[in-house]
Amino acid sequence: MPWVKVVKTSEVADGEIKPFDLEGKKIAIARVGGEFFAIDDTCTHAQCSLGEGSLIDYEVECPCHGSRFDMTDGSVRILPATVPIKTYKLKVEGDDILVEITKDA
Q1: Domain range summary for the chain, segments of one domain joined by +
Q2: For residues 74 and 82, is the Cβ–Cβ distance under 8 A?
Q3: What is the DSSP track for 10-62?
Q4: What CATH class has 3-100?
Q5: Strands 87-88 and 59-61
Q6: 105, pLDDT greater than 80
Q7: Phi/psi at 38 (5° precision)
Q8: Rg (CA), the chain
Q9: Cβ contact 22:99 at 8 Å
């Protein structure tokens, strides 16, 4: 079950991020400059939904306290968060966005 279909490319506009519940994991899909990213939907600081946050270039800003994370590698860009978020491998097949979901080690 590693690759799971999440959404159609047409359902995520450029500059938009959306939360999804996938295989028991909360993830968010973002589209920036025509490129798609899949990240954990939960902020490591206050457990707020990043899918309800704002995109600033390749960063997502948490709507609760303003922490920012780089969507390319999950690293923290602006405090108060100090722990990075998980990123997921993503591929586009036709109009479908698929995310690789693996069991946490």
Answers
A1: 3-100
A2: no
A3: GGS-TTEEEEEEETTEEEEEEEETTEEEEEESB-TTT--BGGGSEEETTEEE-
A4: mainly beta
A5: unpaired
A6: no
A7: -125, 125
A8: 13
A9: yes
Q: Note the residue count of the chain.
A: 105
pLDDT tens digits for 89-99? 999 999 999 99
Token duo for residue 50: 């990043």
pLDDT category at 9 given cuts 50, 70, 90 is very high
Backbone φ, ψ for residue 52 (5° rounding): -100, 5
For residue 83, the 8-state DSSP code is S
Model confidence, pTM: 0.93
Spatial distance between the Cα atoms of 81 and 75, rounded to a whole number of angstroms: 10
Contact 102, 89 (CB under 8 A): no
Burial of 66 (0-12, 13-18, 19+ CB in 10 A): middle
Amino acid at 92: V
**CA–CA separation, 2 vs 98, rounded Å?**
9
